[in-house]
Structures are given as C-alpha cells and as structure tokens.
Specification:
This protein is mainly alpha-helical. The chain has two domains: about 130 residues, no CATH class; about 70 residues, no CATH class. About 70% of the residues lie in helices and about 0% in strands. The chain has 13 helices and no strands. The N terminus is likely disordered.
Length: about 220
Amino acid sequence: MFGAIMSVVSSVVSVVSSVVSTVGKAVVTGATKLLEVAGKHLDAIVNVIETIGKILDVIAQDDKIDELGAKAIQSEKKPEDFDKISEYIEHLKNEIELDMDKFDNANMEDKLARKAIGATIVSKGIEETKETSIPMEFWREVTKQGMSNKEIDRTIDLFKESKEENKFSEYMNGELDFKDEVKVGKMIIEMYRELEPNMTIEQIEDKIMTMEARRDI
C-alpha cells in the first residue's frame, strides 16, 4: 500500500516539476514538499489550506484550489512576476480563463498536481497575510490532529509572535531537543488556555498527550 502511494506521489511530482517554467521554482518546491509529506492525506490537507485561506480572505468563498492550480499552469506569468502573492492570485482569478475541456478530462496525476500547486499558492498567500513562514509539515500535522480553524489560526500566530520557527509538527512527533520541546510545549498550552479558558492545566496537558499519541496516524 505504502509503495503504491509513493509511486503515485513520484508521478505527480514529475508532473509538477514539468511546469516549473510556468508556475515558478518556489511553487514547484512547495508543491513537491506538500506531496512528499501529505501522501494519502493530500485531499484532506488541501481542504484545510483552502478553508484557512478563505477565512483569512486570501481567496474568496467560491474559489477552488484545484481551479487556481490549473490556471497557474495555464498562465504565462508566475509569482516572481508580481510584488505580492495576492496580486498573483488576483491575476489568476481575473485574467486567466480556465480551459474547461482540459480541466474536466485531466488524468489522476494532473488532477493531484494542480491541487498541490493551488494549495501551495494559497499557503504562500496565508504566509503573506500572516507575515510568517508556515512549513508544509505544519499543514499535515494540524490536519492529522483534526484541529479546529481557530486552533490552527492561533497556533500560526503564536509562532509568529514568539519569533520562533514553526516547529509544531516536530513537537507533536517528538523530534525536538529538550529546550525547544519545553518552549513549544508552553506555547501550545498557552494557546489552549486562551481558546479554552474553562479547561484546567491538567485537562490541557491530557489533550496534548492525546494529540501526541496520534503521531503514527
């Protein structure tokens, strides 16, 4: 099963890489990373990125990530041609007419590639809005944990406010050294104390331990 998933990922990465001259190196790098960390969870992660993008007005409520990705592949301009990713997104939405025949008749690899590309563009838009860096591993982890929109939003802000690299995924997977683990752990506790004021510290710690137990999902 794992081998089959990796085989599909490899094929989709090849499709993404083939459009580097169209979508730009930064988007290809991000989309490739997303595909590598997402595996079979790609659709769920894309849905989370799309939802947060809409909440933050990076994209409109009726926008769809796969259509954005398809338009990026069609466009002769890439993010590097614009001062802001938001301007690039507006260009795709307003100036590129989707080739519906090609869109509707795409094979599986192309469909997954445009999802990965669209999700990467929206993720970069979220980074621009939040003025912080968000690794693709973060999106996989918050999706795996089933975190609410407000939990995701606040977690992003906490790392920005603390001027710390976003190491949420590494924390949940027990990959940090003791110093960083304590620091990030305190941030997560602070987040739940703020969002769930009726919870005791013990309840919050139990909740975090339950989240850590999901690391192998």
